[in-house]
């Protein structure tokens, strides 16, 4: 059902009630945030994320381990729409940090039939953010692609000519679906007619839950039910019960191209790459961590299957198994980049996966021929001497074998993998800052 049937055309001038930033905390000056020289780390969660420190736990203690004199790095969780499209999430990320009214853009809002303006952040988490006062970013799953999408928008001047992509000092991603995932088709997206969703699939069930959360949002506590959906006007203050039930049965938003599931389809990736998205910025350090829970299996059609050691993580185990055996020819139109991978030396990486995202997709945007990248050996201890090899404008790719989509984050268990990972990440961020400081002094 076309969404326009249910709601009037949005007004570009529409504004929404003022809501405090998430997390609600006093805006601080740059010097107060940075402390003794450490640049803050902005954390962006993935699809259906938003629990923040409540779920991520004590990772920051290990991120700062080994540094004396109170030189601790501040970590800031940024709330973005858990099921929103990459474009909308990128806009929310930018304005949550800088402050002000979220502006999704006139053309985008008209094309996708929602209000141009969203939530108002009276004071950003880091209002002095600029190319001379940059930030580190860490994104899990779609949090990673949200960061690179935001940098693309900054590069094209979407937020204004006064902003520069060097505002992003480093991009660090874990299990990010840069080039999509066929898991989305397994869960309900129709491979030949995306963004249509199969009835009674996992995807349709999630869409129903989302509409319930949006409709009853004014009656619920802000977290974890806050979907940042004001621009959609789907709450009980905006639509009737009859309209709500019609949306539950046939969702115009869930079956649109302006929502998270569609943005991880291969069809969406083809469009974004044709539009020139994903090109590295020469002033930014890029690191991606690809996780893999599969092992060779000669009896499997793809040659891979999830390791039985992950059987207790049953949902990811089942989804990984389905991804290993998925017939990619069902995707229409069939993406040229997938065909190239099938016929090339990286064919195995198309089926290796972490239960959500194939390994090749976690590397970086674009193919290795179209970007600058260095693929390191499988990561066993994420620390130096690799840090000494990091340079700007190049993706450094690490593969973590025996890890699922959720092994490192978001749920903190205190595992050796988690503690080792964040200690290594902390070392890398300090190394990046030292190089950046030296380059400014030169």
From TrEMBL:
Lipid metabolism is among the record's keywords: yes
One GO cellular component, as annotated: extracellular region
Alphabetized Gene3D superfamilies for the sequence: alpha/beta hydrolase (3.40.50.1820)
Keywords: Hydrolase, Lipid metabolism, Secreted, Signal
Cellular location(s): Secreted
One MF annotation (Gene Ontology) recorded for this entry: hydrolase activity
InterPro entries tied to this protein: AB_hydrolase_fold, Lip-like_C
Pfam families, per database record: Lip_C
SUPFAM superfamilies on file: alpha/beta-Hydrolases
Residue ranges occupied by any Lipase-like C-terminal domain in the UniProt entry: 80-369
Domain of life: Eukaryota
A Gene Ontology BP annotation from the UniProt entry: lipid metabolic process
Name the record gives this protein: Alpha/beta-hydrolase
């Amino acid at each position: 059902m076309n969404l326009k049937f249910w709601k009037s055309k949005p007004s570009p001038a529409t504004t929404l009630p003022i809501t405090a930033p998430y997390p609600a905390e006093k805006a601080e000056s740059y010097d107060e945030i940075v402390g003794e020289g450490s640049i803050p780390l902005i954390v962006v969660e993935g699809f259906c994320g938003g629990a923040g420190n409540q779920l991520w736990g004590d990772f920051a203690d290990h991120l700062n381990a080994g540094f004396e004199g109170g030189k601790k790095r501040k970590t800031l969780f940024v709330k973005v729409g858990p099921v929103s499209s990459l474009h909308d999430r990128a806009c929310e990320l930018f304005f949550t940090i800088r402050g002000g009214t979220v502006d999704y853009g006139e053309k985008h809002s008209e094309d996708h039939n929602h209000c141009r303006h969203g939530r108002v952040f009276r004071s950003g988490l880091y209002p002095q953010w600029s190319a001379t006062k940059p930030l580190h970013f860490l994104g899990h799953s779609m949090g990673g692609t949200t960061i690179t999408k935001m940098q693309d928008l900054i590069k094209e001047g979407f937020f204004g000519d006064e902003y520069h992509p060097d505002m992003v000092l480093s991009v660090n991603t874990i299990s990010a679906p840069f080039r999509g995932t066929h898991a989305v088709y397994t869960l309900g997206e129709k491979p030949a007619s995306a963004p249509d969703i199969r009835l009674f699939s996992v995807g349709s069930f999630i869409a129903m839950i989302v509409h319930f959360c949006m409709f009853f949002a004014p009656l619920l506590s802000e977290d974890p039910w806050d979907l940042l959906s004001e621009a959609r006007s789907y709450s009980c203050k905006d639509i009737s019960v009859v309209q709500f039930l019609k949306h539950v049965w046939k969702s115009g938003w869930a079956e649109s191209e302006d929502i998270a599931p569609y943005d991880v389809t291969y069809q969406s990736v083809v469009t974004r790459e044709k539009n020139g998205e994903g090109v590295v910025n020469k002033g930014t350090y890029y690191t991606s961590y690809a996780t893999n829970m599969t092992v060779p299996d000669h009896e499997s059609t793809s040659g891979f299957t999830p390791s039985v050691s992950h059987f207790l993580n049953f949902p990811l185990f089942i989804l990984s198994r389905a991804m290993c055996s998925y017939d990619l020819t069902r995707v229409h139109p069939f993406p040229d980049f997938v065909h190239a991978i099938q016929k090339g030396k990286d064919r195995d990486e198309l089926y290796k996966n972490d239960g959500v995202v194939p390994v090749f997709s976690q590397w970086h945007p674009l193919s290795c021929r179209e970007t600058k990248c260095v693929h390191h050996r499988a990561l066993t201890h994420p620390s130096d001497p690799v840090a000494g090899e990091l340079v700007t404008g190049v993706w450094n790719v690490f593969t973590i074998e025996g890890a699922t989509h959720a092994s490192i984050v978001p749920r903190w268990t205190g595992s050796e993998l988690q503690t080792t990972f964040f200690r290594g990440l902390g070392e890398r961020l300090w190394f990046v800052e030292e190089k950046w400081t030296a380059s400014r002094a030169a």
